[in-house]
Design brief:
The protein is of the alpha/beta class. The protein is built from 19 helices and 27 strands. Bound molecules: fructose -6-phosphate. The site of fructose -6-phosphate has 15 residues, from helix 8 and helix 16.
Length: about 600
């Protein structure tokens, strides 16, 4: 929920840490801070609000400092004030933390009883004081850290510096992500690799329970029992610059435009000639013959990707699929069959979403087979899964998920086709024709992106309306839900998504001239039915904007305007094309309304709390 960064090495560290925080701003952005260690003194600069607010105060820090830590916060305990911003100081040390310490109240009481004064309302300051107290009896920071960590309940990654130790930073990980980057005579760390990937692609992903001592030469690693561990170096494939805006006004816009590339990369990774690479799709570790029920668990946009997947998994695999919000599934004692008869598929861009992760752990304890579709390698959900399909969306920084949705739907589809291929449920001819069409999807996506100018114009007509309705049938009903979610999260306009056939069971009462209705109307076998729903709306003076084939005379006649969307035969590919239209509409309406598109209020990219 927060982002942490650190640097130790031969270069001045302030700008490196500041830039790292900017890369992690998607994780939280309601306050931020940096601490540097310079000539035996720790100097801290912190501010509420955006990371940029730090600029004046970090200019006053010693610019030649070469050791430092930084934090960008998404408030959980205490308001997003300057006092509650990290780093937190306690005696001779300064500490940053991402995650939640669940038992912080009782630990705080214990410290208060000892007469310790607190400057903030955070759980983090409790950890800082615990370490400071421990250092009085156990002067070696690693040993002190080990003792403190044994007492902490919850999920955290944390780091601290001590004023008398100029050449080391101490870190620990339990439940929240932490990765160390190894350079030449310099070492970095961050909540994810985007924090330092512009400097080094050599990374060490810490595991839960790991504790490390970081110096300019690299790191020493211990497990929670104090045993030394070997460092396993991974050469990450994200290239320098892949997390930058590359000339686009917002990350969200850049990420919408990246979708053709994501589809091409996904196709290249999983398609071999006219069939699918079953090993790359993560199929080899799954025992399909055993599976009797399949649950998909996810949150938000990833949940909508799961709902879209239900439309193709059931007919292709002949198995009933339950798609459930992870926040509900985890608490409702779902019926799960033992011995791998139930498979749980987790879909998550970040691989760190707390509710989805909790479902995975619960299902694993109950003996289910666990498969995940994630964008972040080595993330907690990937590590908990029996097998995983790694998406190739690249870093998604905009808080509103766009290219990850496309990637999730496509990966779930290729996985399903792979299973169908393995079980002999699809003929080679059918598979070949789907793959042939898939190879043209990036070209059609380019055409869908060409509609942007048209949508900018439409957005300038619609942006002031306070309510919107999105409708569709089949997979388009899910794209309607996704369109409504996109619009509300970045423009703060109230929007609802509905299956068009449901309108007359209630929501049609909302229809009047004051509510723009976006109907997703591809040329599929639902077309006639959806069109008659649109006619019902028009009969009640509703204004319908049809997302579909701009050349279709009936659409043109009945809709106020047709939002052009290219048409493909395959319904999954068509759903992906329609998604681009609703993404652009939400984006350009938000831009017209002047909201903070990449970092909408109250939201964070990676929801690591329940
Ligand atoms: C919406 C959005 C969220 C995420 C959800 C799950 O645009 O981004 O609804 O989809 O928080 O996140 P992941 O996929 O990381 O589990």
């Amino acid at each position: 929920m927060c982002g942490i960064v650190g640097y130790i090495g031969h270069r001045p560290c302030i700008n490196i840490i500041f830039d790292g925080l900017k890369k992690l701003e998607y994780r939280g952005y309601d306050s931020a801070g940096i601490a540097v260690l310079h000539q035996g003194e720790i100097l801290v600069s912190k501010e509420s609000g955006k990371i940029d607010n730090l600029k004046p105060s970090i200019a006053k820090l010693p610019q030649d400092a070469r050791v430092g830590i930084g934090h960008t916060r998404w408030a959980t305990h205490g308001l997003p004030t300057k006092e509650n911003a990290h780093p937190h100081e306690a005696e001779h040390l300064t500490l940053i933390h991402n995650g939640i310490i669940e038992n912080y109240k009782e630990l705080k009481q214990e410290l208060l009883n000892k007469g310790i004064k607190f400057r903030s309302e955070t759980d983090t300051e409790v950890v800082a004081h615990l370490v400071a107290e421990e250092l009085k009896v156990t002067p070696k920071p690693i040993a002190a850290l080990q003792n403190v960590i044994k007492r902490l309940e919850g999920a955290f990654s944390l780091a601290f510096i001590v004023d008398r130790i100029p050449d080391e930073i101490f870190v620990a990980k339990q439940g929240s992500p932490l990765v160390v980057g190894l350079g030449q005579g310099e070492t970095f760390f961050g909540s994810d690799i985007t924090a330092f990937v512009n400097f080094t692609q050599k990374a060490v992903f810490l595991q839960d329970g790991d504790i490390a001592q970081i110096s300019a030469e690299g790191l020493k690693l211990w497990d929670k029992n104090g045993n030394t561990l070997p460092t396993k170096i991974t050469h990450v494939q994200w290239s320098p610059g892949s997390a930058d805006k590359q000339g686009f006004k917002h990350y969200m816009l850049k990420e919408i435009h990246e979708q053709p590339r994501v589809v091409s990369a996904t196709t290249q990774a999983f398609v071999k000639g006219n069939s699918l690479d079953l090993a790359a799709l993560g199929l080899e570790k799954i025992d399909f013959k055993k599976i009797k029920t399949l649950h998909i668990v996810a949150c938000g946009t990833a949940y909508y990707a799961g709902m879209t997947a239900k439309y193709f998994i059931e007919p292709l695999l002949g198995i009933s699929v339950n798609v459930e919000l992870a926040s509900e599934f985890r608490y409702r004692d779902p019926f799960l069959m033992p011995d791998g008869q139930t498979m749980v598929m987790a879909i998550s861009q970040s691989g760190e979403t707390a509710d989805t992760l909790a479902c995975v752990k619960h299902a694993k304890d109950k003996g289910c087979q666990i498969f995940s579709i994630c964008n972040v390698n080595y993330s907690s959900i990937v590590r908990e899964s029996d097998s995983a399909l790694m998406m190739l969306a690249g870093p998604e920084i905009g808080v509103a998920s766009t290219k990850a949705f496309t990637s999730q739907v496509l990966c779930a589809y290729l996985w399903t086709l792979g299973v169908a291929q393995k079980l002999g449920r699809i003929s080679q001819d059918e598979l070949s024709s789907i793959i042939t069409e898939l190879k043209t999807l990036p070209l059609y996506l380019d055409q869908a992106l060409n509609a942007e100018e048209y949508i900018v114009d439409l957005a300038s007509k619609l942006y002031a309306y306070p309510n919107f309705l999105f409708i569709g049938r089949g997979m388009s009903s899910i794209i309607a839900l996704e369109g409504a979610l996109k619009l509300k999260e970045i423009s703060y306009i109230h929007a609802e998504g509905y299956a068009a056939g449901e309108l007359k069971h209630g929501p049609i009462a909302l229809v009047d001239k004051q509510i723009p209705i976006v109907a997703i109307l591809p040329h599929d076998h639902y077309f006639e039915k959806t069109l008659s729903n649109v006619e019902e709306i028009c009969a009640r003076e509703g204004q319908v904007y049809g997302l579909g084939d701009e050349k279709d005379a009936r659409l043109k006649e009945i809709c106020v305007q047709v939002i052009p969307c290219p048409q493909m035969k395959n319904p999954v590919f068509q759903a992906i094309l329609s998604t681009v239209g609703v993404q652009f509409l939400a984006y350009h309406i938000a831009v017209k309304r002047g909201t903070d598109v990449d970092q909408p209020r109250n939201l964070a990219k990676s929801v690591t709390v329940e």
